[in-house]
Amino acid sequence: MGMLASLISGVVSGEAAAAVRRARTAAIVYALAALAALCGVGFLVGAAYIWVAGLYGPMAACLGFGVGLLVIAGLLLLFHQLSAGARARRRARRRQADMKAVGITAALAVLPALLKGKGGLGTILGPAIALAAYAIYRENVKPDADDPDAGEAK
Fold first, then answer.
1. Where are the transmembrane segments (predicted)?
2. Which of 48, 75, 124, 132 is the most buried (most CB within 10 A)?
């Protein structure tokens, strides 16, 4: 049995090392590709500048490219800010779902011990009834007008 465990751990550790090497190689290749792409975009912007400068003059081309790039930067930041609220709500929903799953798992893990204990079924039914009552209460309470998440579907 010890020989088998040694063989399995050797295979697993060798596989892990190979996976790390593959990931490192992929990261280097992607970084070099990104660098080449950025250089390519830089040359395309330079070519566009030369073309526009030939049509309208160097000063107008500089001003146009500067204003255009600032507008693009502003639009990117605006889009990021507008989507930040949606991302935060999505994270909160995911966190809430994760907490429910953890709670259910913990309850299921403790259930056999509670059923064997002195309190037995009564120990479980009390909190379960309270939880059900709270859920019914939450369903029937009207949301506040001041609550920004009140109109959302949960």
1. 27-52, 58-79, 99-115, 121-137
2. 124
| 149 closest CA partner among 98, 110, 111, 93 | 93
Q: Tell me which of 144 and 106 has the higher pLDDT.
A: 106
Residue 78, both tokens: 């605006």
C-alpha torsion 86→89→141→135, nearest 10: 140
Report the range of poorest mean pLDDT among 18-27, 61-70, 110-119: 110-119
* Residue pair 127/121 in contact by the 8 Å Cβ criterion: no
Q: What number of other Cβ atoms are within 10 A of residue 27's Cβ?
A: 10
Q: Tell me: the pLDDT tens digits for 58-92?
A: 999 999 999 999 999 999 999 999 888 888 888 88
Instruction: Provide Rg for the chain, Cα atoms.
Output: 30
3-state secondary structure the chain: CHHHHHHHHHHHHHHHHHHHHHHHHHHHHHHHHHHHHHHHHHHHHHHHHHHHHHHHCHHHHHHHHHHHHHHHHHHHHHHHHHHHHHHHHHHHHHHHHHHHHHHHHHHHHHHHHHHHCCCCHHHHHHHHHHHHHHHHHHHHCCCCCCCCCCCCCC
